[in-house]
Amino acid sequence: MTPDPDQRPARLRRAAFAVAAVLTLVAIPVVAWRWSEDPTPAPSAPMTLSTIGTAGATGAAGSGADRTGQRSVQGAAVVRALIEAIGPAGRDAGAVVAPGDARARDQVRGIAEASRVLGVESWSGRFVAEDPELSAASDARSWVGHAEFSAEVPGRGRLSFETAVRVVETSDGPRFGGTGATAADGAKVGAAPTWWSEPLRVRREGRITVLAPAATSAEGLVRQSRTALRQVRTVLPRWKGRLVVELPATQAAAETALDAEPGSYSGIAAVTSTPVGVADASEAAYVLLNPPVWNSLGPRAAQVVLTHEAVHVARGATRTAAPLWVVEGVADYVALRDGGVSARHAAARYLDKVRDHGLPRRFPTEDDFDARRRGLGATYESAWLACRLIAKEYGERRLLRFADALDAGMGLEQAFRVELGTTPRHFLRLWRTDLARLAGIDRGRVS
Fold first, then answer.
1. Cα–Cα distance measured from residue 112 to residue 405, given in angstroms and rounded to the nearest whole number
2. Residue 274: per-residue pLDDT
3. How far apart are CA 261 and CA 250, in angstroms?
4. Which end of the chain is more exposed for a tag (fewer CB within 10 A), N or C?
């Protein structure tokens, strides 16, 4: 689902929560794009699009070397024009895109708006090279190349990523035809933010920032985010951070943001992630929704998913050392705390597993949370039932202290003893007894 953890600069975590037959994934941290102190190479000298000719537009004239040089010049001009368009004193988007290309125009305007709202500034860019494979799949008037973009984000350093850029050749010179997943027709090219892949609307209300493909979906997400913040504050009143929620129009845009292979997030409703190298990871974490799954959810299930992810943001789950069963169980505990859903209903799949295969003899392991495993939803239900029982037996405040201690690196045995006054072995017996009751198993079978 995600690249090998050993290839990441930080430990990757994967998890999912099942509710109403839906899985939601938290990748901790997934590298959606990178932050670095090293600046991107300076862009080439200024060019105007109208002065760049279209010789070799079809690739029939001139040698391969001539065409490569021509397209390098054209690509550099388009990148420079795009940078000018999305800056604070940006030129009209209509002058950057091909006439009549409403989607590309909206994309330029969306990038500019998102940059402004998210506080991204001082953009620079560099055209890298044409992508022959992606160009071969394009129409006769356009081709696709790779470009690197970089920007300063106050207080967080430099944001850098590589993405696809479509160049449209017109009689007036090369024009911008799209970027990210849009430009690459869903193919994997780098890891660009969602708002570089598709035109998105941005809404901001207090601590909430929402990006979505339409005004109605953005407004709906703002309402759901308000509820999520209220539910999180009930349990975590000291958290004062921001909640950023992104809903792209396509799964391809979500996977581009996560640097994931096409199709790898099928069936996943949401991801909580953070850019790498940010000083305050909890403030940088954001929630990325997977549109085909998210849009299939009913209102109640969608709210549980969003509140679950908001808990991850609030608790700084992108940098926790706690076992995943505690990370996910606490998030589900908050999301379901006031939902009025019975344990037998919310954990039906896991209780069926208990009836079929017997009571567990250990807590869920990291491997149990591998997103490729079957029965993943039942694993998350088991984690929720365990954390729910801790709150019931020892109190909600002690559950949170227990999770905080594990977040900070305390060992499981010590955390049980110090924060709960018990041992993992004793609590496991309590949990098995509770599971037997919920599953309707004869308590005489509990050993």
1. 42
2. 67
3. 14
4. C
